[in-house]
Amino acid sequence: VYDAGRLANPVLAASAGFTDRAGDVNRYDLGLTQNFLDLLLLPSHTRLAQADFERTQLQAGAAVLDLDARVRAAWVRLVAARQVERLRRTIAEAAATSAELAQRYYDAGNIAILDLELEQAQSAQAVAALAAAQQDRATARAELGQLLGLPASRDDWQVRDGLAPVPTADEDEAWLLDLAGRSRLDLAAKQHEVTAQEDALGVAHRTRYLGQLDLGVQAERDTDGAHLAGPSAALELPLFNQGDGRLLRVQAQLERSRAELDTLALQIGHGVRAAHTRLVTSRALAARYRDVTVPLQQRIVEHTQQRVNGMLAGPFELIRARQQAYDADQQYIEAVRDYWIARNELERAVGARLLLPG
């Protein structure tokens, strides 16, 4: 913008001619010229540069919002990964207890070798699942730390425990599509680009027959000692090139930008619809785990405990029921995680933060 609002520097030309004939004096020429076409096009250049500057600002804002969305998604994954790791550690401890108890029963001759190996296999599987959960937590932490710009050697930061529960409703899809059309900064940047190139095409049409136009002054001292001074002008004649190539190039850039604008608007629309569908589906799944699966597993543990107290079931059944309840808890955590990631992706698709319904 600064450069576009200023004229090109004038050109100073000088020449000297040295005579070899006695009695004559040397000849000196001085000329100062300025491209007058730059002056004529100065308002247009400034206007186009300002439009490009505004487009660049919108692109920078869109990049910041994109980084914000990626940070929030990484934060959700890390919080959920820590919860899952704690659950997996509890499950592994329970499975180890069950395997140890089975070993005692087998040593006492109360269970068969198959029952013992089943318990040992479940314990080994629980340990493997814990290792996988630890790996997921480490990966999620590294991803978030990288997005935050923290060095790998820094390990003194933590995130809070627990994700917020899912809301009971979500936004209307039609409202989201309208909001995306008004909020997406990259869409606004592309619209600025199209508008600026339409302006540039108009300038190209108006100046297609204008070539280089230099105005200036010239002074010389002739060989007889006389001094001459006066204006000078140089005009490019559009005989072989009437600016058709430049005009076609600007027009092609405009057509490409219009096509990119249409493509981006299409992508945004489909992206909002897909993100909204994922949001609704993940909310329904999380609600089902919360309202049906988790309470049902908790009741199964309670009933199994009663059967164990009445000596109608063994301790292995109770341990297995608790492990299944922990599995349901993990599935609920993962469903909540998927909901908040889906909501974050929806905000990213819309280009704006969304208040929770209600």
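(the above was protein one; protein two follows)
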Amino acid sequence: SIWISDGFAGSAPWVGVLSPPQYTDVLLDSHLYHAFGGPTINMSAWDTVRFVCEQDGPGVAGRTDADWVVVGEWSNAVTKHNPQGGALQGGAAAWLRGMLVAQLGAWDGSFVGGPGRGAGPGKGSFFWNFRTETGEAGWDLLMLLEQAGAPPQVNTAALSEFEYSC
């Protein structure tokens, strides 16, 4: 496969560039974060989760001009409300699970109302990162799994089994 960065410009500049059916195995790589500002900068943690469901998911699903989008980087970190340090406190584990489930669904098209797994533009994603040296839950998948900040099985085919889904 060939991966092309969208240059943080979305898919519009890439319409007709190495697109199917003439080209196969070419993927447009988008990095969709909520930790660096943007429209979610002043939202509560749960409002950010709802934004993923109501804006991000349909946004990826709407990229019909380039049916080959992969979210090459994303995390559970948000501009505000990031849990700091070791153990997850209060309701942090619940909204982190909700954020993870919402993003997995948005990026692969399996969210409610979406095109269905594998059928739409969203062809998958990569969480950043498996383990961090600083132990920040929003960026550390193992920490999320260890402290119930992620579903026990990160299986996008079974997202509706969890307490939160879009």
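Reviewer note on protein two: Confidence is low (pLDDT under 50) at residues 111-117.
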